[in-house]
Amino acid sequence: MAASLRAPRGTRDRLPEEAAAWARAEGVAAELASRYGFERVDTPLFEAAELFVRGLGEGSDAVAKEMFRVGGAAGSEDANAAWALRPEPTAGIVRSYLEHGMHVRPGPMRFWLVGPMFRYDRPQAGRYREFTQWDVEVIGDPGPAVDAELIELATRYCAAVGLEGTRVHLNSIGDAVCRPSYRSALVDYFTAHRDALDADGRRRLEANPLRVLDDRALDPELAAGAPKSIDHLCPACAAHFAAVRGLLDRLGVGYVLDHRLVRGLDYYTRTTFEVFPTGREGSQDALAGGGRYDGLVEALGGPPTAGIGFGVGLDRIVLAMSDGGIPGLPAPALVVVVGTEPGDVAERLVVANALREGGLRVRPDGSERKLGRQLESAAKLGARWAVIVGEELTRGAVVLRDLADGSQREVPISEVAAATRADDQ
Length: 425
Ligand code: AMP
Description:
The structure is a single chain. With 425 residues, the protein is of the alpha+beta class. Helices cover 35% and strands 20% of the residues. It has helices at residues 19-35, 49-56, 61-64, 90-99, 145-160, 179-192, 199-207, 210-213, 220-224, 235-251, 296-299, 314-323, 345-357, 371-380, 416-424; strands at residues 39-40, 46-48, 69-70, 83-85, 109-118, 130-139, 166-172, 255-257, 269-277, 288-292, 307-313, 334-339, 361-364, 385-389, 397-402, 408-412. The strands form three sheets. Strands 1-5-6-11-10-9-7-8 form an eight-stranded mixed sheet, sandwiched between helices. A five-stranded mixed sheet has the order 13-12-14-15-16, with helices on both faces. Helix 1 crosses helix 12 and helix 5 (145-160) runs parallel beside helix 10. The longest helix has 17 residues, at 19-35. The model has no long low-confidence stretch (mean pLDDT 93). The site of adenosine monophosphate (AMP) has 16 residues, from strand 6, strand 10, strand 11 and helix 12.
């Protein structure tokens, strides 16, 4: 096949084989979001690029190097429009929150969404250009209780999809009061070690010095010796961080302090955290990441408003489930409706609908082949049951055939669903 007709680099098709794992990953997300009092929002997959520039900062990798830019149709008035595919969900959710006047509703607001994000990064294992996140955001809650609640939720999610061995990395990066002194301590440190930085590290040092620390290529010894943000917190940030740690202890959520966890995004303040599979704690292994962004709502034109959220990388969750042999949510057993007569196709469709109304998963065989061939095809499709439409239909009944052992019996249509379930026990 011509290369141009293949899925673009860094994207993947979600094939039917993976559907059960995705159903579980997304189903658990929806279920937990609801149980923690979150409400679903969906924002557009593309927004004004300006939103991300203002929300993430010009110096962030997401804006400087990784943004997929989008224009309108050639020749249209939008041909040169400066849109971008969303690299992350928070800026869009905050934009929506402000645009729809949700800041005047009684808060705090709790939102969640699941959907694709786009980053023009170098594709590798677990790092794609299109990937799916489950994201939760709380806007208007200064914490610290909600910080602990969200960190606990992220770990609970991993456990609920079957990933038991995870570890939280935690840090606080201060706020507008104390970050400047930390930033200058970092600049002094890395300027003194400039020779040990590569070109990218030097670019980060100029544009966004905190990002030098979470550079994947940074020499670990140099990183270990760098000033730590938690040693530079102002009293208010220090008290907040101590409270978050105390609450995590009360909730029984273990964590390790990780001073390299500075997050790439300018609007983050105070608490930052990531969740890793235990023992695989490199930056590209993170299952989830999040933190507080008390500066974002204001940066996007709203009133000063606290915020906190996290995103879980569902592609990585599904990969980890399959590596660990963790089953997904299997679809219900398949029933194929076949017929004894080539002319009874309409009856098969009618019977199929009746069975679907009873909650079964049903595919009718619409062919005019002999019954035996239809049954062979049903078995090849992986069907558990065949429902044979024949002369019993005059009595409101069909023949239910167990494709596992070939046994069959007459059953009233209204009792087929119950009969298959009873046998599945
Ligand atoms: P971030 O907003 O970068 O903290 O991302 C949150 C989570 O999304 C990460 O912990 C990953 O699990 C996932 N993620 C981020 N970038 C990618 C990517 N390029 N490909 C796959 N998953 C990603």
